[in-house]
Design goal:
Elements lengths: L8 E3 H8 L15 H13 L6 E10 L2 E11 L4 E8 L8 H22 L3 E10 L4 E10 H35 L9 H16 L2 E5 L6 H11 L8 E6 L2 H14 L10 E3 L3 H4 L18 H12 L4 E2 L1 H11 L3 H8 L5 E5 L1 H4 L4 H9 L3 E5 L4 H9 L2 E4 H10 L2 H21 L4 E4 L4 H20 L9 H18 L4 E6 L7 E6 L3 H8 L4 E6 L5 H7 L7 E4 L9 E5 L10 H18 L4 E5 L2 H14 L6 E4 L6 H13 L3 E6 L17 E4 L9 H14 L2 H18 L10 E5 L7 H4 L10 H6 L8
Parallel strand pairs: 1-3, 4-5, 7-17, 7-18, 8-11, 8-12, 9-10, 9-11, 12-17, 19-24, 20-22, 20-23, 21-22, 23-24
Antiparallel strand pairs: 2-3, 3-4, 5-6, 13-16, 14-15, 15-16
């Protein structure tokens, strides 16, 4: 419930991070200990203390209506000294001043709590820095009066309490507002009601829903509305709307506006999280206070900016940019700060499901009970595989060797030697599955990253950070992290052999285990998409629990809206593609002649697309038809320009790759798109990796071919076909240009509302007329 946001207990760490941080943002790489190294460092320090030395002292104190609580690292009753221990690498003199200030603030809070508990007038406070490199302890000790400590603590606590009171005031308004909230339309149609009831029940019971909801069912609204309503009557106190597409975020924001129409007075708070590279106002600058005005003195500017930002009901990208200009503060890090204080967060899936994601970290830190709305969930399988994989590029390694100082050149040489042995062993293939990495390789990789960290500890401004060695270092860190999670749901493969640009990948094959670990922290979840059939495939690969509730929302479209035609005597298998070019072009030309209007044709590869484009340019030379084609490396503005062609012109033929940027997430309603041609079954490329995946899928699920090839391919087909009919008044056509679409096992995977009749098959038995 929302009461969970009104917690009366506040960690000392949370207090000082809120009220005592100062200085600028500085994202220069500074090696820091891992959590395990920090624990071991603390243990080494305390092991050298006398027998009467006390560790992990639990302390708390009341201020206004809040209890501040924490654990001091150590206390000596003989000397009357409380100690705060911090582990580090490098030169103690180079620990930044604002970091020391924050450490002292935390230590002084514990000092005051100990004074209040022991009723003493003064206390010694020691800040201990322990260097993990040379195991040396640096001690900074000061005597403080209880009165001064109390004054300093109460300044921080008063800031936090004032902010906490502001939050509670809003939450007190929010609860009755949610209780009285009405659905934004007069009625909720039956498809929406089915999904909305499932979402609400899952919030009550803490279960997971897998909802197959076709385009046009209003699934975004059917998810958001009940999730918000659940915030006053269930354990849910946050809603995370997670999507893999920018268009999904925009749709969520539009529906928030529908739900909360009185945007000036509503107590609901929504935040859109945007990737740093997309929100940065000075991308040519380094992310530190010496270089970027928006990073300079960030924490001094934060209090006023945070106050202003909290007044925005919806903090979308543009609103954050406005605040950034007004306060000269980084919009990305302002959004990260505001994520602690809002009700709904709209973000990319990686913010919750990645290796060390922001939203999952906050959920654990503050004991949130979020409800997850995972949009376009079919994408999460491939996104999960990407998030939980790591790769090394030998080209970067060879470049790193050239620029590396002697201290790190040896481990790089060792890595390269072992890599060459792998190439010699598997070099007869272009792509090879490696049964296991030699232990020496992992050790050499670890030695390299350790030596690299030591180098930067000694020289934080070392120019190596501007070379490919720096990129190889971060790739190695990710690679090591993935190796720690490796299991039978991973494989190791080596690509582009004998090119000096070999790619070594630790590849996640089945993300279920790692996705499930993150889903468990939520109070409930709804994974939804237009393409989640068959349900057992998605439930298995997304790691959804056995008691997952599956619902299939009926389509709002009727069979007469879409004419589906099958090319009965056409094959787009790899071996048949050259022969298929002419009949495909003839069929497209005939269709566009008989039914003028905008259309998109989808192909299995860029190579095939380019061959078809060349032939179509010739055949349509005298027609008033504009051909626009997807290219391999289109940027965001080029993709937008491609889409805008369909809104601006009446006879546009788009050529795109199935599964690419234009297969889903674009909305071309009405006459903007009248038809789609799909010249492929969409099956993934057959290679050693996918064949290995098929074997793993067969072992785990006894459906190796379907899980690896059939289901992912048909999902892409349905998504691409879904571009045609977007509203209840749209009409159009769909051509399935492959004889395999006639197979019964394929036909049963296609939407049941599609008008695929035997008559259509017979009609397409004849060869298309020549244009």
């Amino acid at each position: 419930m929302l009461a969970g946001n009104k917690s009366k207990i506040v960690a000392v760490k949370t207090l000082v991070e809120f009220a005592a941080k100062t200085g600028s943002i500085d994202r220069k790489f500074t090696p820091s200990p891992t959590g395990l190294e920090g624990i071991e460092g603390h243990q080494r320090v305390t092991a050298n203390r006398p027998d009467d030395y006390q560790t992990e002292i639990s302390l708390s104190i009341q201020f206004n209506d809040l209890t501040f609580r924490g654990r001091a690292d150590g206390y000596s009753p003989v000397t009357g000294c409380i100690e705060e221990i911090k582990t580090f690498y490098g030169d103690v003199e180079k620990i930044p001043h604002n970091h020391r200030q924050l450490h002292w603030a935390q230590a002084k809070c514990y000092g005051w709590m100990m004074c209040a508990q022991s009723k003493c007038d003064s206390i010694k406070i020691a800040l201990i820095y322990f260097n993990l490199t040379d195991q040396k302890e640096y001690r900074f000790e000061e005597m403080w009066s209880a009165q001064d400590l109390q004054n300093d603590f109460e300044i921080l606590a008063a800031k936090y309490c004032a902010w906490h009171a502001k939050i509670n005031l809003r939450l007190q308004r929010l609860e009755p507002w949610i209780d009285q909230l009405q659905f934004p339309y007069e009625t909720m149609h039956s498809s929406q009601r089915l999904m909305a009831e499932a979402v609400y029940k899952s919030a009550v019971t803490g279960r997971v829903v897998l909802a197959e909801a076709p385009t046009g069912t209003g699934k975004t609204l059917a998810g958001l509305f009940p999730a918000i309503k659940a915030m006053t009557r269930t354990e849910v106190n946050k809603v995370f709307y997670l999507t893999a597409k920018t268009t999904g975020k925009q749709l969520a924001l539009e529906n928030i506006h529908l739900i909360a129409t009185d945007s000036q007075n509503i107590p609901l708070r929504t935040l859109e999280l945007t990737a740093q590279e997309k929100s940065c106002l000075q991308p040519e600058k380094q992310c530190n206070g010496d270089d970027c005005i928006y990073a300079f003195n960030f924490y001094e500017k934060l209090e006023a900016a945070r106050e202003a930002a909290y007044g925005y009901p919806v903090l979308h990208k543009n609103a954050l940019a406005e605040l950034a200009h007004e306060f000269e503060i980084c919009p990305f890090y302002l959004s990260i700060e505001m994520s602690r204080w809002v009700d709904i967060i709209i973000a990319d899936v990686n913010y919750y499901f990645d290796g060390t994601p922001l939203l999952l970290g906050l959920t654990q830190e503050f004991n949130w009970r979020p409800y997850l709305l995972v949009d376009e969930s079919h994408n999460l399988i491939d996104r999960g595989r990407q998030m939980y994989s790591g790769e090394l590029d030998r080209k970067q390694l060879l470049s790193a060797k050239k620029s590396a100082p002697a201290s790190i050149k040896n481990p790089l040489n060792t890595i390269n030697k072992i890599w060459l042995k792998l190439i010699n062993e598997f070099g007869h293939q272009n792509l090879a599955i490696i049964p296991a990495l030699p232990e020496k390789f992992s050790l050499a990789l670890l030695e390299f990253t350790n030596k690299y960290i030591e180098l930067l500890q000694q020289n934080p401004e070392h120019p190596i950070q501007r070379t490919l060695a720096h990129e190889f270092f971060f790739a190695a860190l990710q690679f090591q992290k993935v190796l720690e999670a490796i299991g039978d749901d991973f494989c190791i493969d080596l690509q582009s052999l004998n090119t000096k640009a070999e790619i070594l990948t630790v590849r996640n094959l089945i993300p279920a285990r790692l996705l499930a670990q993150r889903t468990e922290y939520a109070q409930g979840a709804c994974f939804f998409s237009a393409t989640l059939h068959p349900a057992h495939y998605y439930q298995s690969l997304l790691g959804l629990p056995d008691d997952c509730v599956h619902i299939k929302v009926p389509s709002p479209f009727h069979r007469d809206q879409l004419t589906v035609k099958l090319a009965r005597n056409l094959s787009t298998r790899f071996k048949d593609r050259l022969a298929a070019i002419e009949p495909i072009c003839n069929l497209i030309c005939e269709q566009l002649t008989d039914n003028p209007g905008n259309a998109i044709a989808f192909f299995p590869s860029y190579e095939f697309l380019q061959k078809v484009e060349e032939r179509l340019q010739f055949k349509l030379a005298n027609q008033h038809i504009k051909i626009v084609a997807q290219s391999r490396q289109m940027n965001e503005s080029e993709r937008q320009e491609f889409i805008e062609q369909f809104n601006q012109h009446n006879n546009v033929l788009g050529l795109a790759v199935l599964g690419g940027a234009f297969s889903e997430g674009i909305d071309l309603a009405g006459d903007a798109l009248k038809g789609v041609f799909i010249a492929t079954l969409g099956l993934p490329q057959m290679n050693p990796v996918t064949e290995h995946l098929r074997n793993v899928m067969q072992t785990k699920f006894q459906r190796g071919y379907d899980f690896t090839y059939t289901y992912p391919g048909i999902q892409k087909v349905i998504q691409a076909a879904g571009r045609v009919i977007r509203t209840k008044t749209d009409t159009g056509y769909l051509w399935l240009l492959d004889e395999r679409f006639q197979q019964s096992d394929i036909r049963k995977l296609l939407p049941d509302w599609w008008n695929i009749s035997s008559e259509n098959v017979k009609l397409t038995n004849e060869k298309p007329r020549m244009s």
